[in-house]
Amino acid sequence: MFKSVLKSSKKIVSHNILLFQYSNEASPFVGFMLSRKYGNAVKRNRFKNQCRFLYKNMLRRSSPVSLIIKPLKNNLDFSSLKVAFDDLEMQVKN
To answer: 52 partner at 20 to 30 Å CA-CA among 8, 23, 58, 69?
Structure first.
């Protein structure tokens, strides 16, 4: 599934902090592209958990999408992630 979304996806850069690649074709899932440069395991896991939470909330409000997330900056806080996901949701609807 991950490869199919990468091949047939649309890219959105949200506020220069997150790169979203999404596809409406596959069943909904969320994947991450994180390297060790983002931070230690605690920081990477916190980022993934926050993104999963925002993704689940987005699924409740809008149509299901398959999503791959890659951070473009390190040490992102929850409020900036929320703004990026809100921006993604508006762009996917249009």
So the answer is: 8
pLDDT digits (tens, 9 = 90+) for 36-46: 999 999 999 99
Beta bridge partners of 27: none
Amino acid 35 reads S
pLDDT tens track for 57-83: 988 888 788 888 999 998 899 999 999
Percent residues over pLDDT 70 in the chain: 96
Q: Determine the Cα–Cα distance for residues 81 and 14; give it in Å rounded to an integer.
A: 9
Say if 52 falls within a structural domain: yes
Structural domain containing residue 23: 2-74
Cα(76)–Cα(6) distance, rounded to whole angstroms? 24
